[in-house]
Amino acid sequence: MVAPSFGDILDEKGIFLDKRVLSPHYTPDQLLYRDGEITSIMKAVAPVLKGSRAKNLFIYGKTGTGKSASVRQVLQKLEAEGVQEIAVIYLNCKVYDSRYKVLQKCITQFNPDFAKTGYSFALLYEKLLDWVEEKNIRLILALDEIDTVKDLDNLVYTLTRANDDLGKGCVSLIGISNKINFKQRLDPRSKSSLCEEELIFQPYNAQQLKGILEQRVKKGFKPNSVGESALNLSSAIAASDNGDARYALLLLLRAGEIADSQKDQVVLDKHVTLAQKIADEDKAYEVISTLPAQQQILLYGLATLAQDVSYKRLVEDNGEKLYFSGEVYEQYSRLCKKTGREPRTSRWYREYLGELEMLGLISMVESGKGIRGHTTLIKLEYAPEKVKKAIEKILFTEN
Length: 399
Hints:
α12 runs antiparallel to α15. The chain has 3 domains: 35-200, Rossmann fold (3-Layer(aba) Sandwich); 205-282, Orthogonal Bundle (Helicase, Ruva Protein, domain 3), CATH 1.10.8.60; 291-396, Orthogonal Bundle (Arc Repressor Mutant, subunit A). It has a 5-stranded parallel sheet, with helices on both faces. The longest helix is centred in the C-terminal third of the chain and has 22 residues, at 269-290. The chain has helices spanning 6-11, 35-45, 67-80, 99-110, 121-134, 152-165, 188-194, 206-220, 228-240, 245-261, 269-290, 293-307, 325-338, 346-358, 384-396, and strands at residues 57-60, 86-92, 138-144, 170-177, 197-200, 314-317, 320-324, 362-366, 376-380. The protein starts with 5 loop residues before the first helix and ends with a helix. It is α/β, with parallel strands linked by helices.
């Protein structure tokens, strides 16, 4: 058999028209089912069109509920007004994860030659204020995944304090987070500044998810190549998984790729069912890669216990292995020391467990009959060897 050329591969006829419209980074012209939220964001930023400061806005809700897309759409509308004194900067804080990086990136928006590091923070701050004041800029800074900024309290304090140091111009913040309880970790002063106005994005229901998928199918797939039942199944699965539109789109994308690989002309339930297994792993490892190092170590410790055939002190329930919380903490502590980190206290450990459970990476149950005392039992929800491999690539290559 002769290997195909790139031309042969590109000329293959499949069921897709444009895969890009199934990407979470694609923003459609019309965002379905978010008119109310978009209106609220527009009202918060509208004062800049009259020469006033926009309200600081904190937006939160689970992944895949349209937060980022709604903010981007509003900011695009604002820029389209063509007011020279209005500046909009949108940053993903997974990349710009410190106060220094955020200010540095802001400055490069009006001074691209300023990208080099080595300047003091004080100089960055003065440079930003000079630009805002000299040009009478009304700056709106949107910080997506704001919870990943390491020194967030300092950042919020710095940017909100800037308005006190400005004679002309102003700075406003829009913070976006997937973590519902995130604001509870903020310093009270930062919380009152950032959360001047709050907006919650509720998860989509199955009917709304189906509407979103139908919108994307029209541009992403050839006509009549996605079955009605497959659309219903994708929507129902995603609705049961926190109403995540990104997950619904990923399911449909993977199902289409499976149908293509099997030379099928229509996406059916069987393709969606198989895609769910693949998408669940993709989603889990994407989540794992974004976890803080301490949580990755904790998850890694649980995975190593699950693979340790000599480990006997566990509970089995219908073939599922559950581990004692105290044992997992000891393993986590050992791994922290091995990687040169200080183990966190048991209070932080319990909080980490709660967050990992909320993300669907572990599950916890209270011990029942047959176990002395009262304790928590922990189960890893994904194959331990795959969890270990994912974390080793991220964490232990750095040490």
